[in-house]
Amino acid sequence: MKNENRNSLGSIAFFTRPHAVTGVLSVLTLLFMPSVSWADGIVFTNFGAAHSYNTGAGNTVGNAFDGNNYAEGSTFTPSVSESFTSVTIALSCLSSCPDNFDVSITESAGGMPGAVLENFIVNAASLGVFGTDNAPVVRNAAQGPMLAAGTQYWITVDSDLNNSIAWNLNSTGDLAGTAISLDGGSTWFSPSGQTPGAFEVDGVTGVPEPPSLLLVVPSIIVLCGACWARYKATRTQIP
Q1: What is 184-228 written as a DSSP string?
Q2: Are 156 and 104 in contact (CB under 8 A)?
Q3: Residue 112's beta-bridge partner residues?
Q4: Which helix (H) or strand (E) holds 31?
Q5: How far is CA 180 from CA 64, 71, 116, in A?
Q6: Which domains, from first to last, does the chain contain?
Q7: CB atoms closer than 10 angstroms to residue 2
Q8: Among 149, 141, 52, 138, which Cα is nearest to 105's?
């Protein structure tokens, strides 16, 4: 009978020793702590249905064969704060497109493109021919900067003179602010008065779930404390 009691008490001891209680509470806290669900959403888009855009008109990036090295920028302003996840942009090759070029998300500085928040290098040779319904270029975030609600940002596209690229215009009537550079993005002029190119910015917003399950944890702590006290009291009675 004593052995039976000892075995039984040994089981209680395992689950009520301080380090075991701490471990159990750690696991339970993880189980009952408020989790975070993530809601994907469109921060901005001026694409039409199914990412449609104007296939027959665009703003020049790189070489327009007039001696200037063009870069283009268009603005967007998030309505809610989100972490940037991807950009989708309508780009086509006007003529020769052998080199890489840059697509960037930047801050706004004095109403013009400013500090770069995220940059993507795109192979111009992968672009479809201007005038056809090419699939837009999609790039996923590496840095994922936070885009603050009500703050203006820019999408910019710049290239060297070896490329002659078109940023296809939007077909939805968007007339948001635009900028143009004649020296590959070193200096900008805004507003340029041009129709914005077609693009979409996507983001993600963290939505914490209600922490009501955390109310269970204090009860578990009390229960474990009571078990420990009972174990100590019972142990002193063992011959």
Answers
A1: TTSS-BS---PPPBPEEEEEEEEEEPP-GGGGHHHHHHHHHHHHH
A2: yes
A3: 109
A4: helix 18-32
A5: 13, 6, 16
A6: 40-207 (2.60.120)
A7: 8
A8: 141
Q: Which pLDDT does position 15 carry in this prediction?
A: 39
The pLDDT assigned to 137 comes to 98
Terminal Cα distance for the chain, rounded: 12
The C-alpha atoms of residue 87 and residue 122 are separated, in whole angstroms, by: 12
Q: How far apart are CA 125 and CA 184, in angstroms?
A: 19
Residues of the chain with pLDDT under 70: 1-39, 206-239
**Phi-psi sector, 236: left (phi>0), alpha (psi -120 to 50), beta:** alpha
Helix axes 2-16, 216-235, angle to 10 degrees: 150
The DSSP secondary-structure symbol of 236 reads T
Per the document, the length of the chain is 239
The secondary structure of residue 237, as a DSSP letter, is T
Cα 17 to Cα 211: distance, rounded to the nearest angstrom: 29
Helix (H) or strand (E) holding 233: helix 216-235
